[in-house]
Amino acid sequence: MSAAFEVVVIGAGLSGLAASAALSGAGAKVLLLDSKPFVGGRAYSYEHPSLQEEIDCQHVLLGCCTNLRALCDSAGVADRIRWYDTLTFLQPDTPTRTELSVRLLPAPMHTAVDFLRAPMLSLTDKVVVARGLMEFVGGYPAADTESFATWLKRTGQTDRAIRHLWEPVIVGALNDTFEHCSTKYAGQVFHESFLKSAKGGRLGIPTLPLSQFYSFVAEQCVRQGTELRLQQAVNGLTKQHDGWHVQTTEGSFNTPHVVLATPFQQTNALAPQLGVPIDTFRNAPICTVHLWFDREITDLDHAVLLDTGIQWIFHKSRIRRWPADRGSYVELTISASFAQLHQTREAILASALRELQLFFPAAADAKLMKSGILKDARATFSVAPGMDAYRPAQATGEAGLFLAGDWTQTGWPSTMEGAVRGGLLAAEAVTASAGAPQRFLQPDLPPTGLMKLLSRQ
Ligand SMILES: Cc1cc2nc3c(=O)[nH]c(=O)nc-3n(C[C@H](O)[C@H](O)[C@H](O)COP(=O)(O)OP(=O)(O)OC[C@H]3O[C@@H](n4cnc5c(N)ncnc54)[C@H](O)[C@@H]3O)c2cc1C
After folding, report:
1. Ligand 1, closest atom to CA 417?
2. Can you give the residue range of the structural domain that contains 406?
3. Residue 77 included in any domain
């Protein structure tokens, strides 16, 4: 299609990048603006001045993230994602590992063999987990009214099943406590990634620092004709009789279509007339601890750490295939890190090192060369019960004004896939309003094996 319309996309996070890639690919003249000096938004990396390293907070994706994967594919960066078929769960002070791998069995049985063998759960735990999972075999609730805390109680989950399975998976994926996660999105995580197909649950980890990784997507937008302007903040948006007047730190211009791909706070500041209920949205933090050791402390690329404050270890030097003699660069991730927001960096570091040694005794002998701590207070928004009603559609009541972002109605929680979906849905709404409707959203992965009969989703 050759579209003759112009669009200004505000925000070069994943949502704005996805919208720009779709629209410029469809022939629209796109101007993409961001206040920051890099693309990627919250999925960013930056050169840390005192550490002299480019650091980011590790972001992972899953095989079921069809829209994010398609975006990476078309930008030519898909081969910079390392895919894993096994999740390793470690308990402190014991060398026993639980490994959940995808097997060559028809879904939903593909993880059943490892689940039945898992030493981290007792037989009673496995029975209640299996009974609980049965609720998500067919799909997940359409309504987001029930909290996952209520679901855990209703289905009689044991304390160990909660600590060793539900918590690492759901708090890791939805980044809040069970009271602030709805059963709908918790069920979606299990249905799409554990049950529907083996491919859906594969874990993908970018092997490049995130801004480098997503600069491939920005370059593709530019190749398609998008004009990208970084360090240009938009500070005013005024409706005119035939479009919008955009005021930026570098000047102003008029445009018929605007996609606001900004978080809800900035969206509300620029378009208060939309009445985004910002006080209803709840941000949840993520804290990451970055450690550089003089030698390798484990042969694992990543693992879930049970019964501690740290949820995941990402062994970034191995994921990025650094030579072993460069030592270990590890990142420890603490999701829903409300407590750490108020702790000093020294306290967080001391506790993380103490916990790390419970799992990897070699860390006690290794020399810590340097360390850094990142706290992101607004990492995600919480898909608490009832939030769906407050997430706006991409088309607004204002002609020519569209919303994107992980917090809009995407059908997904606050994730990179959700952000990309929001951007693509906004792009679809723009083309429809310009009289040249296009579809950009990718279909979900199809169910495989027995799930072809069982899945309604
Ligand atoms: C520490 C951390 C870990 C995470 N881990 C994962 C993970 O493992 N997997 C996963 O899927 N998701 C993860 N997420 C969530 C994921 O990063 C977000 O859901 C996603 O990146 C949101 O993208 P977005 O485009 O909707 O918003 P943003 O990334 O917030 O993009 C908005 C952009 O708008 C720009 N902007 C704002 N105001 C203006 C203005 N006035 N003018 C111009 N530009 C403006 C901002 O600079 C920003 O670039 C994580 C997030 C964090 C912070």
Report:
1. 11
2. 6-47+209-281+384-433
3. no
